Amino acid sequence: MNVQSLSEKDLINGYLKGNEKAFEVLLTRHKNKIYTSIYLFVKDHDLAKDIFQEVFIKIIDTLRRGKYNHEGKFLQWAMRISYNLCVDYFRRSKRRTKVSPSETFDIFDVLEVKDDNMETTIIKDQTYTAIRNLVDQLPPEQREVVILRHYADMSFKEIAALTRVSINTALGRMRYALINIRKSMEESGVKLHSY
Q1: What does the domain layout of the chain look like in residue ranges?
Q2: Which of 48, 6, 46 is closest to 28 using CA atoms?
Q3: Rounded to an integer, what distance in angstroms lies between the CA atom of residue 82 and that of residue 37?
Q4: In terms of Cα–Cα distance, which of 37, 57, 58 is closest to 144?
Q5: Does pTM top 0.70 for this prediction?
Q6: Cβ atoms within 10 Å, residue 99
Q7: Planar angle of CA 189, 191, 195, nearest 5 degrees
Q8: CA dihedral defined by 144, 122, 48, 61, rounded to 10 degrees?
Q9: Could you report the per-residue pLDDT of 29-38, keeping only the tens digit for each?
Q10: Do 132 and 150 touch, CB atoms closer than 8 A?
Q11: CATH class of 102-189
Q12: Class of 1-97 per CATH?
C-alpha cells in the first residue's frame, strides 16, 4: 500500500511500529499550515522554526507515550500545541505581534495557484497583500480569531476552547473582524476580484 494515501491514524500506528516514513508523510501533509500559523503569530523565521520543531518534539513524545487520542483530528491537535507554545512565548516576552508580509516568507506562498494567467496572478497578489494588511490592523483578539479560523482551519468551538472564551465570544470577534475588514476595504477602495 502507498504510504502517501494512508489515513492519519494508520500513519501514526505505522510510526509507532517503527516506520519513520509514516511520520515523515504525516509531517509533510501538515507542515505548511502549522508553520504558517506559527509564523503569523510570532513574525520571526528563526523563532517560528524553533517553535515548529518544539511542536513536533511534543507530538512525537505524546505519540510515543501512547497519549494521543485518535478521536480528534491530528491537524487541530497539532495547531493547539503550536498555539499554546506561541502563547507561552508571548507570556515570556510580554509582547504582541502583527500579521504582516515579509520579504522571504508569505502565507500565500503555500497556496497553490493553478493555471492562472499572469494578470490573474498579479490581481490575486495585490488583493492578498491588501487583505493581509487589513488583517494586520485588527485588534489582537480579532486578528487571533481570523488567523486560527482561516489559516489554521479551526472550528469556532476549537478556537473558543483554545483561546479560553465562549463560542459566542469567538463568533463575535470574527463578526467584528469581518465588519472592520469590510469597512476598511470600502475606505481604502480594495475590491475582491472573482476568478
Answers
A1: 1-97, 102-189
A2: 6
A3: 8
A4: 37
A5: no
A6: 21
A7: 165
A8: 90
A9: 888 888 888 8
A10: no
A11: mainly alpha
A12: mainly alpha
pLDDT in tens, 132-187: 777 778 888 888 888 888 767 778 888 888 888 999 999 999 999 888 888 887 88
For residues 142 and 169, give the distance between their C-alpha atoms in angstroms, rounded to a whole number. 10
Q: Which amino acid is at 2?
A: N
Q: How far is CA 178 from the centre of its chain?
A: 18
| DSSP per position, the chain | --GGGS-HHHHHHHHHTT-HHHHHHHHHHHHHHHHHHHHHHH--HHHHHHHHHHHHHHHHHHHHTT---TTS-HHHHHHHHHHHHHHHHHHHHT--------SS--GGGGS---S--HHHHHHHHHHHHHHHHHHHTS-HHHHHHHIIIIIS---HHHHHHHHTS-HHHHHHHHHHHHHHHHHHHHHHT--PPP-
